[in-house]
Amino acid sequence: MNASESVLEPASASLPDSVTVRVPAKVNVQLAVGGRRADGFHALATVFFAVGLWDTVTARPAPGVTLTVSGRDADVVPTDESNLAARAARALAAHHGVEANVALHIDKDIPVAGGMAGGSADAAAALLACDALWGLGTDRETLFALAADLGSDVPFSLHGGVALGEGRGERLTPVPVGGAFHWVFAVADGGLSTPAVYGECDRLREQADGPGGADENRVPAPAADAALLEALASGDAAALGTALGNDLQPAALSLRPALAETLRAGTEAGAIGALVSGSGPTCAFLTKDAAASAAVAAALAQSGTCREVRRAEGPVPGATLV
Ligand SMILES: C[C@](O)(CO)[C@H](O)COP(=O)(O)OP(=O)(O)OC[C@H]1O[C@@H](n2ccc(N)nc2=O)[C@H](O)[C@@H]1O
Ligand SMILES: Nc1ncnc2c1ncn2[C@@H]1O[C@H](COP(=O)(O)OP(=O)(O)OP(=O)(O)O)[C@@H](O)[C@H]1O
């Protein structure tokens, strides 16, 4: 303790002045979508994979909840109470019956509305950061329950690594992985709305199978793909590339037909697997090693089929205090 600190303020003196959390993006290497449930959500069997594109969330003491954003695409991130990080701070405070007093700052590097769970990542990071800032010591089970209330992808942003998501995606089981994988991401101009993509998936199913064709009792229950889990366990990039799958891809392509050109450009450049990431419109390309990833990234940048190209390795850990 230095001379300016008072022994009359023991509680606040023991709390940090600032807490920073780093949190990764995700790609769904499998996204099996079952029928629409009565609550409007879809039953999923999805294999989440955390990749090394990071947002950083910093929390400092301040009256009320305020939010600032810097970094890539900061101008399209809402700074009002609809921001998922601000909602996470309020939800944590409400759970503990404490006042939500925090200034949150998001330094954004995850593409916005790109199907890479950027908002969910910020929510997970805000839960961890506020928990530490306010000295709440929230147990893991409660943090995951609060995360699930905020959104289906939020628990995985806390979890990281690779995990099977069931239910609406919030019920997680860790998946063993035998190595690192090299990814290239083609970021599109403009985002896609997640509910609109699920809605288009339903519309396409009803078009194919008639009225009610998208309902829970009509669509086979989604299940994890054994070949994909085996490819992850053995660290076999070629086998993983073959097994990649996303049931939302036809819907994303229907809403954004130009994505077919992006997928073709990456595949022609030597990617060993290609798919739309989550609800899109980001396209994800698996490559066999770092050299191939550099070559695919360069070809995609030249192709004129996307706004920006990013490279990342994974799996990486979930939201972490730094
Ligand atoms: C596409 C994915 O990113 C794949 O991981 C997720 O399923 C979406 O997760 P998210 O953005 O956290 O979604 P939420 O905030 O929970 O839900 C947004 C909307 O997406 C749709 N939604 C989401 C998850 C799910 N299992 N079924 C759905 O139909 C619903 O219309 C819902 O109102
Ligand atoms: N912290 C945040 N960062 C980015 N977008 C946010 C945030 N909070 C709320 N949003 C809103 O959420 C919308 C979706 O953004 P986000 O980046 O989470 O999409 P996404 O990656 O497609 O999500 P998911 O993969 O979980 O479906 C944005 O258009 C924005 O209006």
TrEMBL record:
Keywords, comma-separated and alphabetical: ATP-binding, Isoprene biosynthesis, Kinase, Nucleotide-binding, Transferase
Enzyme active site: 26, 153
Residues noted as binding ATP in the record, renumbered to the chain: 111-121
Lineage of the species this protein comes from: Bacteria, Bacillati, Actinomycetota, Actinomycetes, Kitasatosporales
A molecular function (GO) term: 4-(cytidine 5'-diphospho)-2-C-methyl-D-erythritol kinase activity
EC number, as in UniProt: 2.7.1.148
Function according to Swiss-Prot or TrEMBL: Catalyzes the phosphorylation of the position 2 hydroxy group of 4-diphosphocytidyl-2C-methyl-D-erythritol.
Keyword Isomerase among UniProt keywords: no
Example GO BP: terpenoid biosynthetic process
Keyword ATP-binding in annotation: yes
Record pathway: Isoprenoid biosynthesis; isopentenyl diphosphate biosynthesis via DXP pathway; isopentenyl diphosphate from 1-deoxy-D-xylulose 5-phosphate: step 3/6
Gene symbol of the encoding locus: ispE
Domain named GHMP kinase C-terminal: residues: 228-303
Record-given protein name: 4-diphosphocytidyl-2-C-methyl-D-erythritol kinase
Similarity comment: family membership: Belongs to the GHMP kinase family. IspE subfamily.
Provenance organism: Streptacidiphilus jiangxiensis
Catalytic reaction list: 4-CDP-2-C-methyl-D-erythritol + ATP = 4-CDP-2-C-methyl-D-erythritol 2-phosphate + ADP + H(+)
Residue ranges of domain GHMP kinase N-terminal in the record: 83-161
